[in-house]
Amino acid sequence: MTTIFITGTGTEIGKTWVAVELVAELRRRGHPVSARKPAQSFGSDERGTTDAELLAAATGETPTAVCPPHRWYETPMAPPMAATALEQPAFTIADLAAETIVSTAGITFVEGAGGPRSPIAADGDNVDLARVIGVDLIVLVADAGLGTINAVELSTHAFHDSETLVFLNWFNPHQDLHRRNLEWLAGAGHRIATAVEALADAIEQRVSQF
Fold first, then answer.
1. N or C: which end of the chain has fewer CB within 10 A?
2. 28: which DSSP letter?
């Protein structure tokens, strides 16, 4: 059993798309894969395409297995803030951890909400949740362009006690800035992937060592 926490350097960075593609690639390679979204918030126009629904379609699970129905908050703000706005009960990191049932076999991806320090419960953020769950690996999705070095450095520092793989989303090898960001981050000691297949390779390598 391997538990991987997937997060981004911020919102709208494409972490769910990466998670979906990664799940599909690992399943094609014969790995049993499940996904969990401890809490999700979304706009009313996103019904049918919420993170839980997209992840469920990729893994073959039901959306409510990916995210418990009482953790679906239909207003686009951080989950604990959404719960307050909707006059729903507050919840804690311990509540989410208890509800995040990972698979006893194969790989389970747990997708956070927002960036590492974005609040995901009334008393903590994604870093706190990953620590309590006891994940084996962090996948950090980052932009490939301006500002990514700072964002990656801050995000990986937040997860300083966990091994992290960095995925540069929307990487274009023909963009000089993208190439230089990749070289700089690799030179700083970060493990970087720019294609889903390469990220799957790195995960397979780590899974074999767990």
1. C
2. H
15 is catalytic: no
pLDDT (tens digit per residue) in 105-122: 799 999 999 999 999 999
Give the ranges where 29-147 is alpha helix by DSSP (H).
51-59, 63-66, 79-85, 93-99, 126-133
What's the pTM value of the predicted model, to 2 decimals? 0.95
Residue 92 has pLDDT above 90, yes or no: yes
> Of the listed 15, 37, 71, 178, which one is catalytic?
37
Q: Angle between the 15-28 and 51-59 helix axes, to the nearest 10 degrees?
A: 10
Q: What residues contact residue 69 under an 8 Å CB cut-off, 6+ apart?
A: none
Task: Dump strand ranges (E) for 9-157.
Answer: 33-36, 40-41, 72-73, 107-111, 119-121, 124-125, 137-143
Helix, strand, coil percentages, rounded to 5, for the chain: 45, 20, 40
- Residue 195: CB partners within 8 Å, gap ≥ 6? 171
User: Considering only CA atoms, which of 106, 110, 104, 113 is closest in space to residue 72?
Assistant: 113
Going from the C-alpha of 140 to that of each of 4, 100, 172, the distances in angstroms are 10, 20, 18
